[in-house]
Amino acid sequence: MKQEFDRVKNDIETIQNAIGLSPTVAQEWIPWMKRDNWLNLWWCLPGILLIASSFLPSGIAYFGLVLVQWTGILVAASLLGVMIIGMRKMTANDGRPPSLIREYKRYWGIDAHGRWVGLALMLEFLLYSVWAKHFQIGLGAFWSGIFILLGSTYILLAVTSKLWLLLGVAIPILSYGLFEALLSGKARISGISLGMMFIGIGLACAIIQIWQIRQIERQNESH
User: Fold this and answer.
1) How many domains does the chain have?
2) Model pTM score
3) Is residue 11 part of a domain?
4) For residue 55, what pLDDT is reported?
5) Is residue 215 part of a domain?
6) Whose C-alpha in 53, 82, 171, 172 is 20 to 30 A from the C-alpha of 159?
7) How far apart are CA 77 and CA 120, in angstroms?
């Protein structure tokens, strides 16, 4: 009887996933979500590196490279590491519910829907670049516009797909783009604000994940 029930439940989740609906949130998600939540905080690492570098002397070379070069290398390496580890851990087939794995794949954009979204983003940035070149938009305005465009797109995706964890990425990115548009172009302030964006992503994703866990617990208590 239990096997038949599990089969029906899996069939329902498969149908929901095929038509684009959010998967059924179950009590069995909670332990895995709690375990995965610390991974969100690793987004703070590149932010800490950027902020720390903003207070170091910029004209001194370290091992043949100036501070800006080292900062770029370390931030890029940390971002790549956070993304690889996050995707591998959150989507690992280590006993976690298949529906949760599918939800995390949607968040990371590594499912079929995510590939289409990635293609749409590439087209969006291409059109934005052509528009900016045509109207001779300055580098500062172009830079802030990229983040405003990306943050707005992520918010739209989060709302339409009900993938609320994506808001933890979208809101800090959009806030950074808006704030950057108001800056005077000082490198120190820009580095700090970009670092705060990454820290904001880590904290916002962790807070949203905690909120989701509380919502699941309340739903199960009401039943």
Assistant:
1) 1
2) 0.82
3) no
4) 85
5) yes
6) 82
7) 26
